[in-house]
Amino acid sequence: MSISMSQKPTTRNIFFISTILLAFIVVPAISFAFTFQELQEFFIVEIVNNTIILIIALAVAYFLWGVAKYILHSDDAKAREEGKNMMIYGVIALFVMVSMWGLVNLLDTTFFGLDSELDNDTIPEAGDFLE
Fold it and tell me: What is the pLDDT of residues 92-117, one digit of tens each?
């Protein structure tokens, strides 16, 4: 059975891929005798934080792509408008992400107390909320 990229994912394929991904998480946990708390901390600290950083980096790259498109295609009005829209959407995406990050930090401080180790100039991470 050959799988082409144009095929729609079936429930069986999604289940198979999900099982493989779960095995990559569970097998090391069993072999290193992780507790559930350690596994939860690993998932949040390693996977979620790196995903957040990746998403922010993609938003910055999208914004910079819009800047480049705006500058390099200055003679084409349509391409200049597309570049301008990309810059606007990139700034909006960055603003929303950083605002939500600040809101999570505010809620953490409000409901779980002020963490004296957290400086105002550090970026909040999901692992900070597990302590």
Answer: 999 998 888 778 777 777 776 655 45
- Phi-psi bin for 113: left (phi > 0), alpha (psi -120 to 50), beta? left
DSSP assignment of the chain equals: ----TTSPPPHHHHHHHHHHHHHHHHHHHHHTT--HHHHHHHIIIIIIHHHHHHHHHHHHHHHHHHHHHHHHTTT-HHHHHHHHHHHHHHHHHHHHHHHHHHHHHHHHHHHH---TT--TTSPP-GGGGG-
Q: Which of 131, 105, 108, 110 is nearest to 120 (CA)?
A: 105
Buried b (16+ CB within 10 A) or exposed e, 104-130: ebeebeeeeeeeeeeeeeeebbbebee
Could you tell me the CA-to-CA distances from 52 to 25, 49, 59, 63, 97 in Å, in that order? 19, 5, 11, 17, 9
Nearest to 64 by CA among 42, 31, 94: 94
pTM over 0.70: no
